[in-house]
Amino acid sequence: MNSASVLISCGGIGMGNASRVMAVVQSLHAIATKNNIRLTCIVVSWGSGYRFLEEYKRRGSVQFELHALRTYRHFRFSFLRFPFAYIANILSLWKLVRHAKPGAVLLDSDYHFPAFWLSKCPLFFIGQANDIVDRAHENRYQPRSVKEWFNWLFREKLDSWIQNLMADKVFVPSFNPDSGGDSCCLKVPLIVREDFQNHPLHHPEQPAVGLLLSGSETEKKPFLTLSQEHNLIAISPANANGHPVISSPEMLDRLDVVLVQGGLSSISECIARRRFMAVFPIKDHPEQILNAFEVQRLGLGIACTLTDLQDFSSLLKKIREKRTLQPAINISCNGSEHVAQFILNQLHFSA
Question: Are 43 and 65 in contact (CB under 8 A)?
Fold first, then answer.
């Protein structure tokens, strides 16, 4: 039996990156099993991302090694402690690479790439930045505040530049994967875990509105207040009995309309389950603003602001009106299979 190993490191703010990584791990194992390959996946994260992955490992549905890095959350107001944590994580990853000798490294929204500079294994990225930059130019997007300009330059433009410079290949989850790419970037369909694709779709007998919230705490309070006032189903990654709540297709299938923030993972899960969305992008976050715009343009939902939550009945009326104006188009969500197959092909294993 042939053998291969892949090291995957993902950002720890929120849980969307970890969910996307988990989808890739599932696809890697599915393709490896089909082709009689003994595969070892080594996953590294911190913060909320690590807690998500830890819960998935506890459930035992797919086998992978899991390693924790030092968290950055408590260091964000310390200009001295943050770089020490970063250097410590770089050294930990460097030692892990030397010990594990992976055949490939995959980074998802992760900035620890200096740890892999001296390794000889292929370096891949998963990131939306290239797609965001492309769509920004197409839609003539301009940031509207100083903070939004800062995020645009350092979270999108810089991300895109770093990924294109460092990676052997950048996998770009996209609403329109057929829109092209270049020698460095490969646009792939949206990425969701396999259970969001495999379970049969069904719609609730009584139309219901609910919330699918991000793993970060940013701008979450207005949604939780709304869910309490109107008795709405709220799917939130807040800890329950010490374990994070992981979204599932069964949860989303109870809903007819889903209120989401603008993160790509939450939007992708709603698209996979064919749920109409009201998207509330986090303020000053260009990628979330552009994601909300794209959801509305494609007829998959509407773009909203937190102000819309203040008059919930008017918001529901707006949702009902918009749903009848434009039929939603089908968007593919099997991007993890494209990523997994490309990586295994690079390791000289093909289906």
Answer: yes
